[in-house]
Design a protein that fits this description.
single chain, 167 residues, mainly alpha, Ferritin, 3 domains
């Protein structure tokens, strides 16, 4: 693929991915405000944005076998922890941006767990086996991730187990 086309597809993938998530968040707000059909509209168009992002990623040859995909996920999570969020937190602290400090700390703590979970999964996949996976619980406030029962209180942000969503 030629460089300009590749850059354009990378930019389009980033934009479509952001729109997908943004519209899901907008849908949550519309639901809270009692606008069920507006929420449904945001969810539907969010899915279309996902389809666009998926198509761009496929054209970029960004989807490979599960072992490769897991390694890419591990590398991404480790980059976020070791470089990206560490730098973002430092800037937020320097500028005394408490909310940004909180959100980057929350994300960084969750990414450490994600990397570990992906590493375990990759070891199994590389051995030709699927993983044994129980219920995965995600804290809706900070993203803390656990397999099994949610803790009584989130160890990162302190909210009760009722704030966890099971997958």
């Amino acid at each position: 693929m030629r460089a300009m086309t590749e850059k354009n597809l990378l930019d389009a993938f980033a934009g479509e991915s952001q729109a997908h998530v943004k519209y899901l968040v907008f849908s949550e707000m519309a639901e809270k405000e009692g606008f069920a059909n507006v929420a449904r509209l945001f969810k539907a168009i969010s899915h279309a944005e996902f389809v666009h992002a998926r198509n761009h990623l496929k054209e970029l040859a960004g989807v490979k076998d599960s072992s490769h995909n897991l390694q890419e996920a591990i590398d991404g999570e480790n980059f976020e922890v070791g470089e990206m969020y560490a730098a973002y937190f430092a800037v937020a602290a320097l500028q005394d941006e408490k909310g940004a400090m909180r959100s980057t700390r929350y994300a960084s703590e969750a990414e450490k767990i994600h990397a570990s979970m992906y590493e375990s999964a990759k070891a199994k996949v590389d051995g030709g086996q699927d993983i044994s996976l129980g219920v995965v619980q995600i804290c809706e406030i900070c993203g803390h991730t656990v397999e099994g029962d949610a803790p009584d209180a989130c160890p990162v942000c302190g909210v009760p187990s009722s704030k966890f969503t099971a997958f």
